């Protein structure tokens, strides 16, 4: 997994913040396979504006947040990205099951056979 950081009005993040971001991204990667991660952090006066984009095999997940504390931003973004990942995973599973059901309906062995 490739993580790229982009900063605006900030020199850099501390090691503890980077570890915290990576920990949260790893918890999301249990749900989906992540290829690239783009983290943008901007500071305007008192607030931090943060956005994270996850590039996966088939999908792109994106969330942004603003707060006074950078860890609060990370937590809110993690919740949103997990919600998006679960929704996409459930949608794909439901579509696969629906396709299987429609194939089963179309298959007819004998008119008098019962299933």
Q: Give the termini distance in whole angstroms.
A: 47 Å
Quote the beta fraction. 25-35%
* CATH topology term: Double Stranded RNA Binding Domain
Structural class: alpha+beta
CATH superfamily: Ribosome hibernation promotion factor-like
Identify the CATH class: Alpha Beta
Number of strands: 4
Please work out how many helical segments DSSP would assign. Answer: 2
Q: Rough shape?
A: rod-shaped
Widest sheet: strand ordering: 1-2-3-4
Q: Describe the largest sheet.
A: 4 strands, mixed
User: What is the radius of gyration?
Assistant: 21 Å
Number of spatially distinct domains: 1
| Helical amount | 40-55%
Instruction: Report the oligomer.
Output: single chain
Overall pLDDT level: 90
Q: What would you say the CATH architecture is?
A: 2-Layer Sandwich
Could you name the key traits of this structure?
115 residues; alpha+beta; Double Stranded RNA Binding Domain; 4-stranded mixed β-sheet; 2 helices
């Amino acid at each position: 997994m490739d993580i790229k950081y982009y900063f605006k009005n900030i020199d850099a993040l501390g090691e503890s913040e980077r570890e915290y971001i990576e920990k949260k991204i790893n918890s999301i990667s249990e749900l989906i396979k992540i290829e690239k991660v783009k983290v943008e952090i901007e500071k305007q006066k008192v607030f931090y504006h943060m956005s994270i984009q996850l590039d996966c095999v088939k999908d792109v997940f994106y969330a942004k947040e603003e707060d006074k504390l950078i860890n609060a931003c990370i937590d809110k973004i993690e919740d949103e990205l997990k919600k998006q990942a679960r929704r996409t995973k459930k949608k794909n599973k439901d579509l696969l099951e629906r396709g299987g059901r429609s194939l089963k309906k179309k298959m007819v062995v004998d008119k008098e056979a019962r299933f």
